[in-house]
Amino acid sequence: MTTQDLIPEIPSLHDAALAAALQHRIDRKTKPLGSLGRLETLMLRLGLIQGTEKPRLIDPQLLVFAADHGLAAHGVSAYPSDVTWQMVENFLAGGAAVSVLARQHGLTLSVVDAGVNHSFDPRPGLLIAKIAMGSRDMLEGPAMTVEECATAVAAGKTLLHKRPGNVLLLGEMGIGNTSSASLLLARLGGYPLADCIGRGTGLDDAQLRHKQAVLARVLERHPRATEPLSALAALGGLEIAMMVGAVLQAALERRVIVVDGFITGAAVMVASRLQPAVLERCVFAHRSNEMGHKLMLDALQVEPLLDMGMRLGEGSGAALTWPLLESACRVLAEMASFDSAGVSDKV
């Protein structure tokens, strides 16, 4: 498979006439100009993504991509790798934070086994797309071969295309995956590595220093992995690569893409380095408390909807943000205008 086959062309959504019509519709609602703040910005974005003055959110799909990381063997996480498969079971049993939020908001939650080091019994809510039993140790070589990385991206595209609806909410699970996100941010964003590394699952000071030292060695080990796909293969993970494919396909299909936090943001960063117009389809849910996330949002030049000090991952921030998207669509469709309500306009 060539890069051209793997990476679809994502056109810009620029439509000056539609943008003007949407803005006029928003401005003529029975309110002072701009008084709904960033909810108005969200209305405009959703309308432009869907190409209509009346956007509708249909059958939203919350996909939690899960995989293990070979680098976790070096103690870069506060938790053992077995937590990856155990949390997948927790998601499927309905006991995780994202499970509760998905249930509350009527979101279809599916867990994608992109590369968990565990064999799961098939069941509803589990999509088995395993490429390998986890990524490799990045101190020994690339996390994935070029072929494995391409296969994961392609699998993400195919998987997303088969899902119904017009909204993708991104989630993830993988012990060690904040390390991959930090490495990708440093390499693709051009930031000092130390500024990209946080405490992940709750490292203490000594563990954080150890993580910083390990990741510095990893980055030195892969000096030529500078392009998006080569960096993804060398420094990423199977769940991140599969998310890249899902994001590219969702963007191609003009689905709304709700980006959760640091790790899902890393996948979107890779996808946007391949096809910049991907970002025009994205809504960034929240600013994570993970150290590198602010830098990532700055690098992407985006502003998240929420800042609640969260750093759980799983898609929890995306799910928590969901009612804001619903409100944006309903206000745009149902709120009266000055003309329809017979309310006097500003003098």
UniProtKB/TrEMBL annotation:
EC number: 2.4.2.21
Single GO BP term: cobalamin biosynthetic process
Enzyme kind, highest EC tier: transferase
Family annotation (InterPro entries): Nict_dMeBzImd_PRibTrfase (IPR003200), Nict_dMeBzImd_PRibTrfase_bact (IPR017846), Nict_dMeBzImd_PRibTrfase_N (IPR023195), Nict_dMeBzImd_PRibTrfase_sf (IPR036087)
Keyword terms of this UniProt record: Cobalamin biosynthesis, Glycosyltransferase, Transferase
Any GO molecular function: nicotinate-nucleotide-dimethylbenzimidazole phosphoribosyltransferase activity
Catalysed transformations (reactions): 5,6-dimethylbenzimidazole + nicotinate beta-D-ribonucleotide = alpha-ribazole 5'-phosphate + nicotinate + H(+)
Active site: E314
Family matches, as CDD domains: DMB-PRT_CobT (cd02439)
UniProt entry tagged with the keyword Translocase: no
Pathway participation: Nucleoside biosynthesis; alpha-ribazole biosynthesis; alpha-ribazole from 5,6-dimethylbenzimidazole: step 1/2
Family as reported in the entry's similarity comment: Belongs to the CobT family.
Function: Catalyzes the synthesis of alpha-ribazole-5'-phosphate from nicotinate mononucleotide (NAMN) and 5,6-dimethylbenzimidazole (DMB).
HAMAP family noted in UniProt: CobT (MF_00230)
Designated name of the protein: Nicotinate-nucleotide--dimethylbenzimidazole phosphoribosyltransferase
Taxonomic source organism: Roseateles aquatilis
